[in-house]
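The instructor's notes for this session suggest beginning with a concrete chain rather than abstract definitions. Hand out the sequence below and ask the class to guess, before any prediction is shown, which regions might be ordered.
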Amino acid sequence: MYFHSATVTPSGCMYVFGGVKAINSNEDTRSNDIFKLWLTLPSLAERSWEVITSCLQGKRGFLPDLKKLGIPQHFLDRLK
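After discussion, reveal the predicted structure:
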């Protein structure tokens, strides 16, 4: 893989996007895949936030409910 982009979040999670895959010596294919890799063990709060956001994918208007549940503001700020 080459010509890809990668970044590491402050919590230690690395994301790699796209690039060119070398299938064989005569053929290369572009990719828009996203890979995620934890470089450190995530905190329980970080892991819990991942579970919450995965359950909410595709839903709208849930922000007031999350505030009522007591989700810390620094997590809610990530939704903006």
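Then share the key points. The mean pLDDT is 89. The radius of gyration is 17 Å.
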